[in-house]
Amino acid sequence: MKIKNLVLGLTLSMFILSCSNDDKNTSSEMSDAKVSAKIDIVTEDVSKIIEDQFSLQANPNSGRTSENSIQTLPPCATVTIELTETTWTRTITFDNCELPNGNVLDGTIIVSGSLNFDTPSHTISYSFVNFHHNNILIEGNRTVVRTFQTTNTLAQPHPVATMSIDMTVTFPNGNSYHRVGNRVREMIEGFGTPMIWMDNVFSISGSWSTTFPNGTQSSTITTPLRAESGCPHIVSGVVNIVRNNNTAVLDYGNGECDNQATLTVNGETTTITLGN
C-alpha cells in the first residue's frame, strides 16, 4: 500500500482539528489532509530530482540508457550545466513536464555543489525559480547533505542524504502553507551498482511541521518508509501525525506496489487512495 509518487517515497500528513464528529469539522480535516498530502508529494519529487542530479554529476556515465536504467527526468525537461574550477551547477527547467507518477512540473530548480566528490560529506544546495508542482507555487532554498556511512538502518556503509526543508507553497486559490523539518533518505540497496538505477531501494525517515492558516501540525515517520525504483509509490512505512493533542496514523502497508494506504484517526481506520 502506498501513495502515488516516483521513488523515494512519499510521506502524507493528516491535519486534525479536533475529536469532534461534527460533519463540518470532518470535512475540514479531510481538506487539510489533502493539502498536506500534496506538500509531501512535492518534497519527495524535489528530493529525488536533487539526489539524481548529484549522482549524474558525480557519475556522468550513469545516465546512459540501458535495459536496467531509468530516465530521471521527462524528455521535455532541459538541464544546463555550469562549471567553475571548484563547483558545479545544474539548472533544470521544466515546461509543464509530466513525471512518471503523473505529477506535472513547470519552472526551474537550481542544484549546485562542490566538484570534490572524494570528501566524506557533500553539501548540495537547491533553490526554485518560478517553480510549480501541479500548479502549486514552490518557494524556498535549503541544502541536502550527502554522506556515505553506516546507520542503525544498515551496518554496511551506504549513501545517506539529509534534506533540510524550509519551503512555502502557495495553492492556486491563494492559500499559503509553510513547512520546515528534516528528511533522511538512505539508499539501502543498489549503491554497489551505480550504473544501474532500477535496483535502488531507499529507506526514508524524518520529521517536520506544517503551518496552516489556522494552526500547526507535526509529523514523524515512526516506521521508515520504503521506496523502490521499480515502483512509483511508497511501498511500506508508518507516519504519526499530531495536532492539538490528537493523533492520526498513516500506514503504507506491507510492500505492495499500489497507491493505497490506511489512515487511522481516533481508533477509526479508513483506506485512502491518493494521486496527483
Which short descriptors sum up this protein?
276 residues, mainly beta, globular, disordered N terminus
Structure report:
The chain has 276 residues and is mainly beta. The protein has one domain. 13% of the residues lie in helices and 51% in strands. The chain is built from 1 helix and 13 strands; from the N terminus they run H-E-E-E-E-E-E-E-E-E-E-E-E-E. It has one helix at 23-58, and strands spanning 78-83, 87-98, 104-114, 121-133, 136-149, 158-170, 176-189, 201-212, 215-228, 234-243, 246-254, 260-265, 268-273. It has a 13-stranded antiparallel beta sheet, covered by helices on one side. Strand 12 (260-265) and strand 13 (268-273) form a beta hairpin. The relative contact order is 0.20.
Helix content: 10-25%
The poorly predicted ranges are 1-24, 65-70
**What is the number of independent domains?**
1
Overall pLDDT: 81
Rg estimate, integer Å: 18 Å
Largest beta sheet, briefly?
Answer: 13 strands, antiparallel
- What is the end-to-end distance? 16 Å
| DSSP summary: helix tally | 1
Name the strands of the widest sheet in spatial order. Answer: 1-2-3-4-5-6-7-8-9-10-11-12-13
What would you call the shape?
Answer: globular
Give the H and E element order: HEEEEEEEEEEEEE
Indicate the multimeric state.
Answer: single chain
How much strand?
over 45%
- How many strands in all? 13
Category from helices, strands and their pairing:
mainly beta
Q: Layout of helices and strands, plus pairs?
A:
Layout: H1 23-58, E1 78-83, E2 87-98, E3 104-114, E4 121-133, E5 136-149, E6 158-170, E7 176-189, E8 201-212, E9 215-228, E10 234-243, E11 246-254, E12 260-265, E13 268-273
Antiparallel strand pairs: 1-2, 2-3, 3-4, 4-5, 5-6, 6-7, 7-8, 8-9, 9-10, 10-11, 11-12, 12-13
